[in-house]
Amino acid sequence: MRTETSYCMKTANPTSHPMPAPFRRLIITFCIVVTSLSLAGAVLAQDDAPPANCIYVEQDGGFETSDAWQFAKTVSPGFLDANIAHNGKQSAFVGIPSDAKNQESDSTVWQEMQLPSAGQITANLWLRSQAGDANDQRYVVVWNLSTDESTVLLYEQPLEEDWRPVSLDLSPFAGRKIIFVVGVHNDGLGQVAGVWVDDVHVAA
Q1: How confident is the model over 116-130, as pLDDT tens digits?
Q2: pLDDT average, residue stretch 71-79
Q3: Cα separation of 123 and 142, whole Å?
Q4: Helix, strand, coil abundance in the chain, percent, nearest 5
Q5: Residue 104: CA atoms inside 13 Å, Cβ hemisphere, count?
Q6: Are residues 154 and 98 in the same domain?
Q7: What is the tens place of the pLDDT at every residue in 1-18?
Q8: Are 39 and 117 within one domain?
Q9: What pLDDT sits at residue 119?
């Protein structure tokens, strides 16, 4: 499983044999492809790295595996969507798909995290919305497992929009074990609301 927790601080004598031209061309091509993939991976890793002197607390912030995040088992459970992503191969979708029946429901994706005792902790994530009606809401909630209390950090009507960044202050929960929740509430009337979530990074 890929983890995004990153900390910021006697050989034989060769024998020469002529190589046939087709094999030589194949090996050269292979080396070029491997080098290109390695460089692409290095660029991606650099772009995905935390700021200097910081760590990423979450695991698999890009939803590239099915191990780190959990989808609540509701009447409208979320899922990994390989058709839409901000980065990488897929994102998480919560809510009701546009071609599905509307019903009153909550759909959430969540991950348990142990926050360090740091001065500043920020959750950065990207959201893309499928618009619902005025009574549908998208939200981000932190459940403090130390006190069994929940705090709503974002609560708003989802509007039809492309990807946009969201930054939330988690500093009040420093040193605590939390559950970080992203969800959508549908009221069962009018349009169906949904949200794609990607590139979640909790930097400390």
Answers
A1: 997 899 999 999 999
A2: 97
A3: 11
A4: 15, 40, 50
A5: 2
A6: yes
A7: 444 443 333 333 333 334
A8: no
A9: 85
